[in-house]
Amino acid sequence: QVQLVESGGGLVQAGGSLRLSCSASGRIDSYIMGWFRQAPGKERESVATIVGSGSVYYAGDVKGRFTASRDNAKNTVYLQMNSLKPEDTAVYYCVARRIMVSSYEYWGQGTQVTVSS
Predict the structure, then answer these.
(1) R_g of the chain, CA atoms, integer Å
(2) Percent of the chain at pLDDT above 90?
(3) C-beta of residue 81 within 8 angstroms of C-beta of residue 68
(4) Which burial class, exposed, middle or buried, applies to 1 when counting CB atoms under 10 A from its CB (0-12, 13-18, 19+)?
(5) How far, in Å, are 9, 12, 30, 84 from residue 105 at the CA level?
(6) How many CA atoms, within 13 angstroms, populate the side-chain half-sphere of residue 97?
């Protein structure tokens, strides 16, 4: 079992940047990692998927603005968010699943990101 703890959220003006971190309680080598977000009144949505090799797949309009990465040696994943927009305001969750499992098994508690206009 993996416990995930996010950090780095906060309040930022539109056009600004934030870097989220997610620390895992154990090795993440064999896990597919990712980031989700949930805005007020909206469904939870995928932001990025980071496979073991480090390749990243982005969803929605974050491509070109957000960069997700993983450091397996530190059991940590990151989400660098640039050119933030008010519509990026959401609770951001770090997630993990084993390769053979189709849905994410482990979720962090979430960190709030608020972008003011």
Answers:
(1) 13
(2) 92
(3) no
(4) exposed
(5) 23, 30, 13, 28
(6) 13
